[in-house]
Amino acid sequence: MSLNDVLLSLLEPVGTAGGIHFVTWDMAQQWPEHALDSLLRTGVLVPAKPAESVECRICVEHCDLDVHPVPGRDGDPSRIFAICEDPDMQDQIGPILIPPERLRQWKVAPLQLARVVADLLAVDSQIEDRHGQTDIRIGMLKGRKGRRWLSLNKSPLTLEVNGHQVSLAELLFFEDEALMIDRERIDQLLDTVPSSPGKAYRPSTEKRETRKRASEAMYEDWRDAYRKLRRQHPSSASHPDTWISQRIAKLPIAQGRDPETIRKNMKP
User: Which of 4, 44, 212, 251 is most enclosed, with most CB atoms within 10 A?
Assistant: First the structure.
């Protein structure tokens, strides 16, 4: 098993459930050396609260048993036990001592992965996972044709770029223990016209959200142009905002909007 195999084994259950996936100590022991350190260092995994149950290894049943911490006495460290639920086995083996490290666990979730993607693509924005939403807005990337929104869909786990969706498992990979993202493919999607969605039904709220994102990306292009033109023509007396908005209205990024609309939305 390689480090990339481990990464894929984490992304798959997250995409299937659209939520948090936990990794136990026992699972991590099956991985290659340094895999856990690499996943923690890159933010793919983060520590989670200690487990409240463990898999019993006494018999072939391999039951999940609740754990019971017992405080130590006279300065001795506390100990952790599990009790078999089979009365006959209880009589034979008594309380089962559980090493404390077996309670350690970690988690991976869509929000973590969205932040990992943002870091790899140098997207500086506030990333939130809002309750009830099926995707997480990461931020905007700038292509040759302007800014486009980047989002992470939770289930299936796909990155949406400029209306195109691609599996996150196809984009993330490790190279010499460094986490990488296929930036070349993302840049291609940024500049590729989205295919027609056909007549598939889309809820009105989703349509409104899509229009809102497109408008925000357009406004950000106007703000970039405003800053550039204002640096070239710093005097607001000889080159007022109305003059700048008229210049922007002649550019492709205006998308047919009139100068007055541009003027109202072009300033940072």
Answer: 44
Q: 42: domain range?
A: 3-108
Nearest CA to 26 out of 80, 86, 106 is that of 106
Question: Smallest Cα–Cα separation from 55: which of 84, 33, 35, 28?
Answer: 84
What global pTM score does this model have? 0.69
* Residue 200 resides in a domain: no
Domain count, the chain: 2
Encoding tokens for residue 169? 């498992």
Provide the token pair at 28: 């991590």
Domain closes at, from 108, 124, 140: 108
Q: Is the pLDDT of residue 180 over 70?
A: yes
- Domain limit, last residue, from 86, 108, 130: 108
| CB 118 within 8 Å of CB 109 | no
The reply to whether 113 falls in a domain is no
Residue 200, pLDDT score: 39
Q: Given pLDDT bands bounded at 50, 70 and 90, which one contains residue 109?
A: very high
Pairwise CA distance, residues 108 & 12, whole Å? 11
Residue 137 token pair: 């807005």
Alpha-carbon gap, residue 117 to 151, rounded angstroms: 10
Residue 235 lies in a domain: yes
Cα pseudo-dihedral 207, 209, 214, 220, rounded to 10 = 170
pLDDT in tens, 14-53: 988 888 999 999 999 999 989 999 999 999 999 999 998 9
Instruction: Name the β-bridge partners of 175.
Output: 178
